[in-house]
Amino acid sequence: MLETDFKAWCHAFQKRADQAGVSAQTLEFCASYLRPDPRVLERQSNQSEFTLNISQYLDRAVTDNRIRKGRARFRANRALLNSISEQFGVDAQVILAIWGLETDYGATRGDWPVLTALATLAQSGHRSEFFEDELIAALMIIDAGDIAPASMLGSWAGAMGHGQFLPSSYQRFAVDSDGDGRRDIWGDDPQDGLASIANYLAEHGWRMSRPCRVEVTLPSGFDYALAGRQTKRPVLDWAGMGVRSADGEPVPDYGDASVVLPSGASGPAFMTFGNFEVLLTYNRAEAYAIAAGYLADRVQGGRPIKTRCPGDLVVLTRDRMREVQERLTTAGYDTQGVDGFPGPNTAAALRSYQRDRGLVADGFGSGAILDRLRAEDG
Questions:
Q1: Where is the Transglycosylase SLT domain (predicted)?
Q2: 339/373 same-domain check
């Protein structure tokens, strides 16, 4: 990153921030933080791809230590969590679980200067408009007096505080729960941070005392074309097909539901409800939403998930998924594009391919599927 390029970007950005309503005083006060940090770009370029199956992911996200720590944090903050839960209509254990997943219950809130991180990402050219918008939001937060620039710390990607809010989410959903006149999600006292998590979920439609997902078993001959969040049916419809909870009992009626197979037919299956969709607004990864609900359950004494993925189940990288899409399309199973993301078109093509070969037609692109496609190509 050339210093002259950054200065030119910074000059243009400050004009945009001024037009957006950031005060001249704040722009001048924060000018020294608008500088490039090459470490941010190193972290961005070195991100590892998500290649864990759901069982491996949950093993890392919902550890015995995190469950024990969560129970201890719940005991220590019981009155606060219950008060926030009652105020916002969001289950206390879910607030706690997101706190645990995001920052290990406040232990790892991040120590990167957020203004510098966002300025670096905005000037780098990758999603520059998005990061400029977040940087303007961060400056407006400082303008409002909620935090000083030196104390606005977070992740290298600009996520802040106990709940790892981006600045734009902070503007919309952060609350001053302790009444001190500041929405402080950064400090050691977690009250504003926990209330802000609850407010976020409430504003996105969380329904109290309802699960986000239930582990289920599927009947022999289940039509895997029905799996996925794009298909929502009444619980009674699923029950009529033979879908049961993992302990063999009927699933209670929590409203329209989907059947989700995060690692295909050989891994665990879940029936997901409206609260699952709410969690996906916090983090778009289905694995994250499953982990949040699972940690919330385990902290409250819930049982472990019964089904594990086979140890040899390989989740494909984006490059390998592109190869699957290319090979499927060449073989006559059109994936409607080659982008490395296993969307519904790719799943439909995979199901057709699997069905024609007498395989379980779950539409999941695994390492075994790629090996088979390569072998067929000679």
A1: 6-297
A2: yes
